Amino acid sequence: MSDLVQSPAWKALAAHQAGIKKRSLRELFCEDSKRFDKLSVQLDGLLLDYSKNLLTEETLELLLKLVRQSKLDDWTAKMFGGEKINSSEHRAALHMALRAPRGASMLVDGVDIVPEVHQVLDRVRHFSEAVRNGVLRGYTGKPFKDVVSIGIGGSALGSLMVTEALKPYGNLKLNAHFISNVDAANLTETLKRLDPESTLFIISSKTFTTLETLTNARSARDWLVANLGSDGAIEKHFVAVSANLVEAKKFGISREYTFELWDWVGGRYSFWSAMGLSIVLYVGMDNFERMLAGAHAMDNHFRETPLERNMPVILGMIGIWYANFFGATTYAVLPYDDYLKYFPTYLQQLEMESNGKCVDRNGQLVDYATGMVLFGEAGTNGQHSFYQLIHQGTQMVPADFIVSVDSHNAMGEHHAILVANCFAQAEALMLGKTMEEARAELVAQGLDDGELELMLPHKVLPGNRPSNTLLFDQMDPYSMGMLVALYEHKVFVQSVVWNVNPFDQWGVELGKQLANKLLPEIQEGRHVVVHDSSTNGLINHFIERSV
Ligand code: F6P
After folding, report:
1. Is the pLDDT of residue 535 over 80?
2. Whole-angstrom Cα distance, residue 252 to residue 250?
């Protein structure tokens, strides 16, 4: 058994859970009229209500013991101090430097990296303003109208998610498009509607070797050259964001149009850098800087606030409570904000690529869960698809609700209805509907006894389904920065308790390796026997059937 599972803090939580699971949230709220006041915390226009969780103050004390035993403070100091805590890749994880204000100092190998960060941000400002003002134009002299970002995973999801989230701040003269999938449908359907003369491509790839990104980038380059009739168009229409300046240059992108990234930034933590160029082009550098300021405020909160009032620590501990002590395997993120529709998709990578590990930092197999499968959908849409299982299904699915006080679109009753649904869902999950309540409802509907007894079990909702609610004053760029940094640090807190490295992703590599091996077999079209019978069968069937 692992040290973690044998630790007194873990054992105390396991024993405590046996008592808590017999309690109901209804009871806990009845017992303490101040539960909301005690179990909620605020920061800069963000209220985190975690009172609708199956926990007491004693639970939180025990969880805090677990966090303290993991030496979170030391790990946080190491991370902010630029130590190479991404041990399997021998790298620091200093995405916080990307949002550190000018004049701050953060060191990697004794070198202050904040000035470099601001040098690149200054270049991003200069470049983005020139594009937005029509000073930088395409090969034929037309101003840019469409920006196509080509990248995948951490080099795409953050920009896609934020560009959508900050649409109310978007530039109406520039359209943002994102291409990730190597399926040609993605590129073809996008390019169909675009004018090559006014289209700018951003190739976002830290390594500049990712197969999908380079395949899409080459096809986009072919399309541009074919339409504009000259290779000379490439350096006017292609921008690179990469740590691999050599490959970016080989592709044909000029140094002036290349923005660098550093090895101490992980892909899924990178959109705060030039990786967010498409965001900047769309919402402008001032808004981007407001977002960086919001993230920096969350960094400071995480570093300086006592653990018991620390938002990322609270969210992290609650996730651990359900994953490790209630056996929850799935977790829902439910933004009641249509602009946040890609937030669950973004978080899937952040949480699942970071902590989806089965060995600990020492290479030992773990004997505890290291995360939950995350999914989600903007409210109220999700209510009409998967919420049923969360309300009455057989498993616990803890949820995070996200909503704002103000709407960007003051239109009739829309926002009041949206917010009412959000709060009502959290309440319904918590309270459920008792047998007595269900019976009273059916009696009021005038059902006869036989029908009532038949209907009754279907109308009962067990309740006791936990959730957090994040209530923002408004989803502006500053809030956006806080929101993402909150989850980044939450994931870090959990990784420390679980003793896993949240900054590598070796599991993704195997798929890449095998695809590279399989590709020539598919392309050559010869009968194969080297794989297992299923893979052989699929390849051979594909070859036989393809024309
Ligand atoms: O999904 C795996 C991954 O390695 C991510 O971590 C990374 O963000 C993405 O692929 C893209 O990598 P790159 O930016 O090098 O093209």
Report:
1. yes
2. 5
**Which residue lies with its CA nearest to atom 16 of ligand 1?**
205
Cα–Cα distance for residue pair 199/158, rounded to 1 Å: 21
Which atom of ligand 1 lies nearest, measured to the CA of 207?
15
Question: Which ranges of 310-448 would DSSP assign to H, the alpha helix?
Answer: 311-320, 343-347, 354-355, 387-392, 414-431, 435-444
**What is residue 300's three-state secondary structure?**
helix
- Residue 121: the pLDDT is 98
pLDDT tens, residue by residue, 215-252: 999 999 999 999 999 999 999 999 999 999 999 999 99
Pocket of ligand 1 from Cβ distances under 6 Å: 152-155, 205-207, 210, 213, 267-268, 505, 508
Nearest to 150, CA basis, from 248, 283, 233, 246? 248
Q: Are 533 and 410 in contact (CB under 8 A)?
A: no
Distance from C-alpha of 350 to C-alpha of 327, rounded to nearest angstrom = 21
How much is the pLDDT for 514?
87
> What's the pLDDT score for residue 484?
98
Distance of CA 518 from the midpoint of ligand 1 (Å) = 20
Mean pLDDT of the chain: 97
Catalytic residues: 353, 384, 512
Contact indicator for 489, 302 with CB cutoff of 8 Å: yes
Residue 196 confidence (pLDDT) above 90: yes
